[in-house]
């Protein structure tokens, strides 16, 4: 069995794969004429495309991300290729990132950063303006395990957590969950609005002028989901017109965020370079999922965990 | 009974004081010739000094801060003036501030801010460098209610919490508490070091070259206690020589921080303008303590809660 590796593999993990017996790992830069013989792909990238075009043996792709919107899902479905994501390992890092954003706004750190450029001490101006999270309301679009992880952390700070999902079913750590339609009504009254929805046809430009126009309470908008769920021009307008008090953005319609984007220079906007799910042990955590799936795949031809529904897209 | 008000009083709270009967509230700017007739001071400032010099009736001062190092404690003691602080209302806002600082460093927000000046997208450089708080170690100097509040929040993130106090007695939410001497040894191995000690003769310049020289693990240093507990020059040297990975500072030896301070321009340093204890409802929370003490003082001549030990200084 030939595995095309397009992510990262420690020496220890390469040894673990070798110990499985009939397994050969080929790194992306050494694919050469092997594209037609690949059975499994770990990660994704240019070399994967030639495998997809040439190999009839490809039956399992293990992505190294949670979102899989960048993959040719229809082609996977047509060719009966099983796809797994690494959903589950992002809850802790993304939850912590969202708490960092929210606390930075609540506690005046973002305001202090802006004043700092002028060496400006604004204690007396903001000391009575800043606030604690107690009894604040955060509306989270997406109630999967990451959304639940965010809600769990927020509950430790006395926050009211409202989830929004297609089905509106109750989920752990949410005070209540509503459906998409009611979500905007809830967001309108919230202190913070968080997007962690997957990108699908339905969520593309979900956060558009119509959405921002309904905000009543000047929330801070946080995107740790996918960039194209947001209409960037509408977001910038909503910030300019103070429909939003601020934004914290980890993902963007175009990544890297173009150097000419006005977002870079806007006050009350935190920009991070698509890192919210990252952490030092990510490679090992992703490998653990891949290894579990690979061993099952070798034995049974199916995968054990994290299989993506290729029609739903997540 | 005449009360000199040097803090803030809402109309509602003024009415509550008036309802106590023989109570007259005099605001600082209307003190005039009344200095010698003042019985009680709420807050502190210039007019209080003339009261202290002239009034034999002054028997109770309710400060509007937790730390009281800026007050003439020896004179209070000699004149048998009872002093109360508002300790207890800062735990939530300061805990949230410390979590914001720590998460900003852990999750790469501080690094992203530094890169942002150049519109620089550093995702690939830092995504695998950043980390979650799980199993990190935070050493907190000061195990009173604020220290405990910080530790409580950190436990929600899976952090190992080590407290340092003079007595070394166990305290809530700390995995363990050690005495001053062992504190430096613990700090040397920590990921974050937090100061929330009161300022006393013993804590002045506690964080000095000898302290920073012992750091082995490049911790981030956080000061939400008092500025003079830190030797600023030693702190800057420790940052320059990478004995520290960074710092988050809310208090300074001189406040406002002078515009010429090199700290303003240093990367990996978060500066906030002495706001960590602030929040919108602070005035009401402080008044609640004052009101409780005042009613007891009127009835019995003593105060009910938050009395400062004038010899210890906190």
UniProtKB/TrEMBL annotation, chains A, B:
A Pfam family per the record: 2-Hacid_dh_C
Molecular function terms, GO-annotated: glyoxylate reductase (NADPH) activity; NAD binding
Highest taxon above the source species: Bacteria
EC number(s) per entry: 1.1.1.79
EC top class named in words: oxidoreductase
Domain D-isomer specific 2-hydroxyacid dehydrogenase catalytic, chain residue ranges per copy: 26-302
SUPFAM superfamilies to which the protein is assigned, alphabetical: Formate/glycerate dehydrogenase catalytic domain-like, NAD(P)-binding Rossmann-fold domains
Annotated CDD domains: PGDH_1
Keyword Zinc: no
Protein name per Swiss-Prot or TrEMBL: Glyoxylate/hydroxypyruvate reductase B
Protein source organism: Lentilactobacillus parabuchneri
Source organism phylogeny: Bacteria, Bacillati, Bacillota, Bacilli, Lactobacillales
């Amino acid at each position: 069995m030939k595995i095309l590796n397009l992510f990262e593999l420690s020496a220890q993990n390469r040894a673990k794969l070798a110990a499985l017996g009939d397994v050969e790992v080929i790194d992306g830069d050494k694919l050469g004429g092997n594209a037609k013989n690949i059975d499994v792909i770990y990660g994704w990238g240019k070399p994967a495309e030639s495998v997809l075009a040439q190999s009839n043996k490809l039956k399992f792709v293990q992505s190294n991300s949670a979102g899989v919107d960048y993959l040719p899902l229809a082609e996977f479905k047509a060719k009966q290729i099983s796809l797994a994501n690494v959903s589950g390992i992002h809850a802790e890092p993304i939850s912590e990132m969202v708490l960092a954003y929210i606390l930075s706004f609540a506690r005046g750190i973002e305001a202090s950063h802006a004043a700092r450029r002028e060496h400006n001490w604004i204690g007396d101006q903001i000391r009575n303006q800043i606030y604690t999270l107690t009894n604040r309301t955060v509306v989270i679009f997406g109630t999967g395990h990451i959304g639940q992880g965010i809600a769990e952390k927020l509950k430790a700070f006395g926050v009211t957590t409202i989830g929004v999902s297609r089905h509106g079913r109750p989920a752990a750590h949410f005070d209540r969950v509503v459906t998409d339609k009611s979500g905007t009504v809830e967001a309108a009254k919230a202190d913070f609005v968080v997007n962690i929805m997957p990108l699908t046809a339905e969520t593309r430009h979900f956060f558009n002028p119509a959405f921002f126009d309904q905000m009543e309470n000047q929330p801070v908008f946080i995107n740790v989901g996918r960039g194209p769920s947001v209409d960037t021009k509408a977001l910038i307008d909503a910030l300019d017109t103070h429909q939003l008090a601020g934004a914290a953005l980890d993902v963007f319609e175009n990544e890297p965020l173009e150097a000419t984007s006005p977002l870079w220079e806007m006050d009350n906007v935190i920009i991070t370079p698509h890192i919210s799910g990252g952490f030092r042990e990510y490679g090992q955590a992703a490998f653990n999922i891949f290894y579990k799936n690979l061993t099952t795949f070798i034995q049974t031809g199916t995968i054990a965990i994290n299989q993506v529904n290729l029609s739903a897209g997540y």
